[in-house]
Request: fold
Amino acid sequence: MRGEARIMILLSTAISVVCAQDPAASPAFPAPAGGLERWGDSVGPEAPSPLAFVVDDGDQNRRTSASPAARRFVADHPGWRVLFDPRSGMPWRSFGPGIPVARSGAAEHEIAAAARIFAAELHARWSLPGDVPEIGYIGRGGRLWYVSFRQAHRGVRATNAGLTLRIDTEGRLVLWGGRFPRADTSGEFALLAEADARMLAVAHLRARGLLADGSAPRLALAELVRHAPLERPNSPAYLVYRLRLSADRPRAEWEIYVDARDGAVREFWNDIRHAAACGERASSPHLPHVVSRPRGFVAAVTSVVHEGLEPWQTAVATALPDCAFQAAGATYVTDATGGFSFGGASPVSVQSSLDGPWITTFNQAVGGTQAYYSAFVATGALNVLWDDSVSTQSERDAFYFGVRARNRVLQNNPTETLFNTALPVNVGLVGACDAFYDGVSINFSAASGACSDTAFSSTVVQHEYGHHVTATIYAAHGRIVPGHLGEGFSDLQAATSENVSQVGKGLLGPGTFVRDLDNTCRWPFQCGVGIHARGKVTGGAWWKARQNRFASGGANGRAAVDAALYAHFHGTPETETESCLELLLLDDDDADLSDGTPHLADYYDAFTTAHGVPFPIPPIRIEHATLGDTADQWQPIHFRAEAVSISGSTIVGATCFYAVNGSAFTALAMTSSGPEWTATLPRPPTPAIVSYYFRFVDALGTAVYWPSAAPDGVFTFRTYRPVVVFEEGFDGAVGNWSSAATSGTNDWQFGAPGAAAFAFDPPAAFSGGFVAGTDLAPNATFDGIYAPNVVEHLTSPAIDCTGRAFVALDYRRWLSVEDGAFDQARILVSVNNGAFVPVWNNVASITGDDHHLDFAWARHVVRLTAADGQPSVRVRFELASDAGINFGGWNIDHLRIDASPPSPPLTSVGSTATGQQLAVQVRGGAGEGFILCADVVYAPTFVPYVGAISIDPYGPTFVFVVPPDLLTVPSGGLWAGGTIVPPGLSGSTLHLQAVFASVGSDPYSVSNVLSLTFQ
Ligand SMILES: [Zn+2]
Reply:
């Protein structure tokens, strides 16, 4: 049962998709049967659509502390935050209180000069890859300048790479960031000639059946670049030829990146669907707008169009702006009301071809000709009516809505300069319900079956023009529009222009539509993996943001979102999260993103609550010292966390959810004292494995979970100090582990993760250098993604658990797998060579969209009840996939099988009589450090960042720590020490407890309390 059935169901409300960038024949994601998504002749992979990562405050803080450059930057610029891409380890975005770099109201060249200085400093201090950055493009939108720097390596440009700055109109730098792939190390010079690369590219397409026999694609572009595939955050930038090939059969515009060293095709996709020869048609020159005295005549131009109507309704005459007329050797363009004045000598001959400064229309049903109007005018008034006598409906609609789409750009971003030439529009194409942008023109098919002529739909036309908008702006900044955002942004331009959530409304008749932005699609793939389906997340989030702002601020609020949409294209976001970050930046009113923005709650609700997009700035900042294992038999469990709203709201509620030994989670209300929230759980039974997570809610109703991956990712501790029975870090010989596939190819491997091309795998091992994982190493067989239709497993050697109680598996996991309804990741256990029995599996949801995606190493503890006391226990990690969506699969590191200890960690082995030898024994891991605390009055105290220990180091009863330094558990795991019990202590009680030092990011753990009453 693969994804088709599900996609079909989810799309049953969406009749089809608008443009030609459809997942028709993607080998990875075949289109559903029935052809509803099969618009146009799209073939091959879709435009790349990178996956956002989850911004985890704790992880980000650790990364900042570990980076000398980040520490120095934050020291130099107090209040700034640096966020890293956890998959590449490179800086991603940084923001904080605006840094003055230019004067208020500075001109573009002053902004450029300031940006250059700042960029050079960042480049040096952060050792950013490539040459000293040079400015590629400066865009304007709202109150921001968007400055994009080129990343180049010895003069060779890197695609989709480089530093980007935001400077506000008051001259303050408010954000910097970028994407910084390093050059691969294979060499600096091309070994292949461009002609060889082209030959290899064509061979690549032919081998995949993507070129018809005898068809020879035309080379539209070739450049030597550094290229790190957009969907591969760890990838180095390879030296490649970027080739753009226009193919006729099947029609496609191929973007192909051929390695200039070894000829490998690093990435390819079909960027533009139809060739249709429109690439060869020159766009119209910019037509001068002649202003003259109204002397000869005044013209009123109307056109019969589907203004405010659905395609199946009867068009009506409407004033036509931006239409050019020729008279007496000059050009006149109609104004917003469809009028123009001719001031020359009349009578005069007047002509028009239904074109103008922004749109030029060609009718492919009649050989690419244009509509034609001609009249001989005397004086007075000229009433021009574009109707069926001089034009076709598709020409009129395409022109009219195309002009509207262009004018929306300038209306929302008056500083835009990239849309002052005419875009060719082709109508009357043969094709069922087709509409597409091919990089140089927008194109619409004639009516076919139940489908109207696609040019009749205002939103379809504006969707296609929207592709032109984003492609042009991204290209100016040296970037490529990701497929999923491109679709979402096109839908948004169309929908916001008409103020209707349904795109393609009525295209197949009354009550039909193509996509609805008033949707509940959740990030990343809930409504499907194709770029249009993924675009519904972006479209839905912005649409909800617009609704929220309308509810709170009326038409002005809504207009602010529309303006931000157009401005933020200059931020060239690659993911939904980056798109949201740019929106927040434009919403900010104090040049400091780190303290939130005025409408953050509206946007959090839209992007994160409604659509599941990882929010770039968590609206509630949470600090929590993870609880460690505790063998303390007296203290209850204290859950404690600090939570602060950064949106100006207050935290009004907090809940701790806990589960004991894999039971269902129980909610525990927390109480606050200032920012600190606490909840107390009576001591669970010992031994027990306790999992927990938090939920905080602010006064605006915003809810934030901690850890953010909860409940898939949770914190875990034990009520005992486990003893390790077996451990494996996969760093040494692992010959006693075995792997096999019972179906498909076994791709389990031991090795270093972080293969450049693998988007879903960890950048590095959790500890040591190696891990066990599916599809780790790049070679001809492996692509980082587990294979379809595979059942494969990795099995541990037999582990002797004789005499062991409460056996558990404790390991670090980085797993990405499709919803368990389709692909299953399982852990199984076999006892004494018996059958393997499942003990854990990924979630299988009813909707089939709850994919398990770890974005960090997660600790995972699983109780293995059947293993208790058994002489031969084997643990198995299994992966079973269907034919559909595949991810990175398993990555496993730092694995232990452990058990409860035979006795408490702290025991007395001496005498309690005065004058006699007092001796205590501490059991721990060999080499483990600890301190021993003692107290004469039992006074349980919670010590922040230490845990629940029984000694109050600040209280009057505190006696001593023996000795004051860290002790070490010797090999053998037992430490013993003691002293002579002094006289005079008779009758009193001494309480002892060991606190074990943490290793790395592990929390402290504590022993039991040993109480000794002296005789
Ligand atoms: Zn589209």
Summary: The first strand starts at residue 81 and ends at 84. The longest helix spans residues 531-568. Residues 1-41, 273-294, 939-960 have pLDDT under 50 and may be disordered.
